[in-house]
Amino acid sequence: MSEVLKTLSNIRSLRVIAREVTLEQLEGLLEKLTIVVEEKREAVKAQEAEVAQRLESLNKYRELLAQDGISAEELALLLGSSTESKKREPRTPRPAKYKYVDNGVEKTWTGQGRTPSVIQKALDAGKSLKDFEI
């Protein structure tokens, strides 16, 4: 929530602002706020009417399908869309490209992501990544 909205939502903050401005300025703000509220109401009504019209159209087609004895599932199969969600196959792990020893334990790194600290220290000391290749 923005600071302006927090201020406008708090009656105490509004009273503080009201003490600092003239009545004419407050009335001007009220008129502008009223205009914005009415515009928002009209936009919401238009959106609700659009949704209602879409639902009415869908119901009309559902009735037509029912009259012809066709179910929604049959129509979906006819159009080639599946009602089941497609599951993504997990990505196969990348093969390791580099090998290094960390605290006496041999480890590998694919070359993706953050460089392991052992390799980074060696690179900073002048070594090359080719020294760590498998």
What is the gist of this entry?
The protein has helices spanning 3-9, 11-20, 23-67, 72-79, 117-124, and strands at residues 98-102, 105-109. The chain is mainly alpha-helical and 134 residues long. The mean pLDDT is 89.
Protein architecture, described:
Strands 1-2 form a two-stranded antiparallel ribbon. The mean pLDDT is 89. The chain contains 5 helices and 2 strands; from the N terminus they run H-H-H-H-E-E-H. The protein has helices at 3-9, 11-20, 23-67, 72-79, 117-124, and strands spanning 98-102, 105-109.
Keywords, separated by commas or semicolons:
5 helices, 134 residues, flat, single chain, mainly alpha, two-stranded antiparallel sheet
Helix count equals: 5
Q: What's the arrangement of strands in the largest beta sheet?
A: 1-2
DSSP strand tally: 2
Q: Percent of residues in beta strands?
A: 5-15%
